[in-house]
Amino acid sequence: MHTFHKRILKEFKRLQKNPLPGITIKPSETDPNDLSVFVFDITLPPDSDGVLHSIYRSDIYQLRIKITDDYPVDSPEVQFLNSHPGSKIPLHPHIYSNGHICLDLLGSGWTPACSMESILLSIQSMLSTNELAERPPDDQAYVRTAPLNPKKTTFDYHDDNV
Amino acid sequence: MSDSDGNISEDLEFDYDDDEEVSFSEFTADENEIDLVNKFEEEVYIKKDLKKEAPSANRLQARAKYKAWSLEEYINHFFISKCKKLQSMKLPNCDFDDILIMLHAKNWGEESVINGCYDNPTKFFEDCGLPLRKRNNTFEVVKNFLCPICCSDDDIQTETYSLTCNHKFCVACYTRYVVGLVHEGKLITCPECKLSIPHGDVQKFVNVYNEQQQSGSSVLNSPFKFVVDDASKAFVKGSPIKTTIDLSSFELLKYAAKRNIDSNPGNFKYCPAPDCMHLVELLSPAKDGRTESENGKTMDEENIYKVPIVTCPKSHEFCYSCQFENHLPLPCWLVKAWIKKCNDDSETANWIDAHTQSCPKCDSQIEKNGGCNHMTCSTCAYHFCWICLEEWAKHGHQYYACNRFDPDTVNAAQKYKKSKRLTLKRYIFFYSRFSVHETSMEGDSKTLKKVNEKMTKYMNEESKRRNNAEVSSTNSLSWIDVQFLHDAIRQLTNGRKTLKWTYVFAFYLSKSNFSEIFEQMQDYLNKTVEDLSKIFEEIYAKKKDSSNLIMQNKLDIINLSNLVAQRQEKMIEFAFTGLEQKLLRLEEEKPESSLEPVQTQTQGQTKRKQR
C-alpha cells in the first residue's frame, strides 16, 4: 500500500463526491485497493464564459494521472490518452501529439500542497483559455524521441502567453 | 644529493643554454614575450617564498598563482560577510535572517538588495518571499491535526510548522519537502504560498532528517518526535540567527554556493578528487576561467604549454585547467587527446561519442533524449543549438538554418581516419608503457601502504619498549627519524606519475636531436624510480624484521628519492624549455581540429533524423 494511502483516498473520495464541473472520474479504470492510476474524462466546464466559441467545446478528452511512489512530495505522471477508440489528444500549443503536457505544475511548479484537483483545474483552464489550434513547434521531433514517462522530459517553461 | 646526477643535469642545462643563444634572433623580434617570461619567473619566486613548496616543486608547477578555498570559506566570504555588511547598514525592518533571504533571492547582489529595500520595500519583500508584518514562524504541537499533505490523523498530538502565512503542515511532511528541495540550492518556499523558509529553519529540517537517517528509522514510517530545545525555540521564534552558530555549515547555503559556482564559475574550480568539496581559485592574470572553452584559439603559444598545477585545501594535487591529475610534463590539450585516444577502444567511449556532445561552454557531456534542438545546459545554463553547437541566440526565429552540407568537412573526416590508422602501431607501443606504469602506481600504493603499516607498528612497539624501560636510549628512533619514509613514498608516486606522462609526451613528440635527449632523461628517471620501487618491494616481501631492513636502507632510500625528485624536475623543466623555445615539437594537432571530423559525423546523423 502507498505510504500516503490516506491522502490519496481522501482526494479520490472528494473527486467522486464533489466532481468538478466538466470533469468526471472513471472509477472503472481505478482499482480501489491500489489507487495508483486515475483516468478522467475532461471537457470544458459547461456553463463557463466563452465555452461556445472554444475550439474544444464539443470534445471529451481522456486524462490519466499516475501516482508515483513519492507522491505527494513528487508530482504525479500526467498525460492525455488516445488509446481508446474515439479519444484524441487536444490540439494545443503546449500539448504534444503523444499526450505529453508542458505545464510547470507537473514539474518544477509542483509542491506537496498541490493535488490532483489542482492539476485538473489548471489543465482545464489551459484548454479554456487557448484559441490556437496547433501543436508545439517541435512536436514532430519530440514525439519521435520522447520517453514513455512524461516526467523524464525536462521542459523549458518559457511561454506564458497561452 | 648525488654528485654524478648533479653533473649530468648541469651538462644538459648548458646544452640548451647554448641553443637559446643560437635561436636568440627569433626571440628578439618579440620583446614583449621575453618580458612576460621574466614576469612569470618573478612570480615563481614570490610563490616559492610564500608557500614553502615541497622539494618536488618546479618551475612549471609554480607558475600558477592560486588560492585554495574550502566551501565553508567560500560561503563565509561571498554570502555571510555580505550579509553582515548589510546588517551593519541597519536596513529598515530587516534582521539577519531577512537579509540572508534577500541576498539569496537576488543572487547575492548587495546592490539590488539595498536598492530594493529603499525603492519599493513592499514589492521587494514580496519578491523575496518575506512577510510584510512581523515574522511569526512557529513550531507547535496541535491536537487532532489533519495535515493537508499526508492527510494522516493517527496521532492525537502532531508537531507542525508554519510560516507567517499560517499554512500549517506536519513536521514530517515539511521535512520531506525541504530535504527534497535543498539540493537545488534555491530558496525554499511554503508549499502553499510564496513565503520563504529562513535558512536556519531549513537547517533544522535537514538536521531532523539526518538524525532519522542515522537512527535507521525512515521518516515515512515512524511518527518521530521533534525536539524543540530552548535554544532552537528562540531560534524559531524569529529572533535573528546568532552569529555564534556556524552558518557556513548550513546545507542550503552549501548548495546555494555550489549553484552560484556552477552558474558563474569565474576563476573557481572544484577539486576533482572524489568526495572532495574544496575549491581552487586561480589568481594569475594570464589565465581566466574562459580559456578552457576557447582552447587553443585565443591562447598564445606561451599558454598552450602551461600546466597550472594546484593543490586543494585537502592537498589533492590537480591540473587547474583540465581538472586531471598532475600530468606534467604533458600539456593539457594533449592529455585530453590522449585520454580520448585511450578510451576510443572502449564501448562506453564509443557510445558517448555517438550519442552525446559536450556543452560548448562548460564541456559537460550532454545526451539529447528528446525535444527540440534548442539545448539548455543543465550545468551552466548555456543556450545552444544541438546541431551546430553555436549559441542559440544567433539562430533567431529561423530553425536549423545551420544545416548546410559542406564537402570539406567530409574530406577532413577521411584524412583523420587514415592518419589514425598510421599512428596506431606507435600508439600501442607507448600505451603499453603508459599503462604499465599506471598499474605499477597502483601496486606501489599498495606496497607503500603495507610498508607504512609495518613502520607504524614498529614505532609503536619501540615507544612501548621505551616507556617500559623508562630510559631514553640513544639507539631508538623518533618519529622525525622515520619521516624520510613518508617523503620517499610521496616522491616515488610523484616520480612514477611524471614518468607515466613522459611516455605520452614521447608519443606526440616528433623526432629530433632534442627528443633523443628527452628519451635519455626518461631512461634515467625510469631507472631511479625502478630502483626506489625495488627497495620498497624487498621490504614488503620480507616477512620478518622488515623494519631493520628499512633502517639499513635508509640512506639509499633518501638518496634515491632525492634523485627521483631531481630527475623529475629536470625532466619537466627540459620538456617545458624545449617546447617554449621550439626545440621540441609536439605533433598532434590542436584539439578542435582533431575533434572536428567526429562532430561532422554526428551532424550527419542528426540531420538524417531531422528530415
From TrEMBL, chain A:
The active site is at C102 (glycyl thioester intermediate). CDD domains: UBCc_UBE2W. Transmembrane segments: none annotated. Keywords: ATP-binding, Nucleotide-binding, Transferase, Ubl conjugation pathway. GO terms for molecular function: ATP binding; transferase activity. It comes from the Eukaryota. Residues 3-162 form the UBC core domain. It holds the Pfam family UQ_con. Belongs to the ubiquitin-conjugating enzyme family. PANTHER family: UBIQUITIN-CONJUGATING ENZYME E2. This is Ubiquitin-conjugating enzyme E2 13. It comes from [Candida] railenensis.
From TrEMBL, chain B:
The keyword Hydrolase does not apply. It is an enzyme of class 2 (transferase). Keywords: Metal-binding, Repeat, Transferase, Ubl conjugation pathway, Zinc, Zinc-finger. The keyword Transferase applies. This is RBR-type E3 ubiquitin transferase. It holds the Pfam family Ariadne. It catalyses: [E2 ubiquitin-conjugating enzyme]-S-ubiquitinyl-L-cysteine + [acceptor protein]-L-lysine = [E2 ubiquitin-conjugating enzyme]-L-cysteine + [acceptor protein]-N(6)-ubiquitinyl-L-lysine. It comes from the Eukaryota. It comes from [Candida] railenensis. Residues 594-605 have a biased composition (Low complexity). Residues 588-611 are annotated as: Disordered. Its EC number is 2.3.2.31.
